[in-house]
Amino acid sequence: MVQQSIVGTARATPARREPLIREVVARVRAALEHLGTPTVRRPRFMRGATLERRVEARHLDTDRLRLRPHDMRDADAWHALASDARVIRYLSWPHRDAAAARRHLRDRTRHTTLWQTDDFLALAVTHRGQLVGDVSLQLRTVASDARAVEVGWLLSPEHQGKGFATEAVRGILHVAFKDVGARMVLAVVEDGNERSLALADRLGFTLLHRNGRSHLLVLTPDAFRRG
Ligand SMILES: CC(C)(COP(=O)(O)OP(=O)(O)OC[C@H]1O[C@@H](n2cnc3c(N)ncnc32)[C@H](O)[C@@H]1OP(=O)(O)O)[C@@H](O)C(=O)NCCC(=O)NCCS
Hints:
Layout: H1 2-11, H2 14-33, E1 50-56, E2 60-61, E3 66-68, H3 75-82, H4 85-88, H5 98-110, E4 113-116, E5 120-127, E6 130-141, E7 148-155, H6 164-179, E8 184-190, H7 194-203, E9 206-210, E10 214-219, H8 221-226
Parallel strand pairs: 7-8
Antiparallel strand pairs: 1-4, 2-3, 3-5, 5-6, 6-7, 8-10, 9-10
Helix pairs in contact: 1-2, 3-5
The chain binds coenzyme A.
């Protein structure tokens, strides 16, 4: 359904474009309201339009961190991270034993390309060679004038309080705005997840919508540049 709007948006005259973009945003918002329930991805041939070029996961260095594609050699560290109750409290993730965490990490090693709607790209956040977190992007709408990406983040409790998450998310936001060409980056934060709300605020996100359960936040390229 969103895809139909995207096609319409791309063809619209400038006067008609703004309401169409608003409609796309409303549909993205409606879709995001269902977060928390498992997402069923449509087969690739049904996912329609593509980016002008594929965006592939790559190494990114920030002042103190390296972001890079996930690697199965981090299986133990990933299990510790993905089964820590403090980390998953506000995520829709189940508690995973070592085997489930391994499968989960294996999936993440394959999530390295953004090209079509729903594509997901995850990067390991490392500090001095050690896995300390994860940042991700999911392509929500492709049309260039309403292109939207959703960002996700998590950091090991031992490494919180040092600005690492701010630094890592800034790194992946560069990918979203520069490589993907996003017009907006969305973040969904559950009620009560105060550290994530503070992080989003530091990065320049503003509230787009709030339901009883979560905040839908948005970051524009201008706000990112100002941040
Ligand atoms: C959300 C989350 C990543 C935030 O982590 P965080 O440590 O609070 O964020 P940062 O790493 O950016 O650190 C910010 C803190 O470091 C401090 N800091 C120290 N040095 C800093 C620096 N160089 N730059 C920025 N902040 C710095 C800041 O003042 C801030 O401190 P405060 O919490 O006392 O205000 C983390 O709580 C988490 O992983 N939560 C669980 C996963 C989750 O819920 N994900 C979100 C799903 S939407």
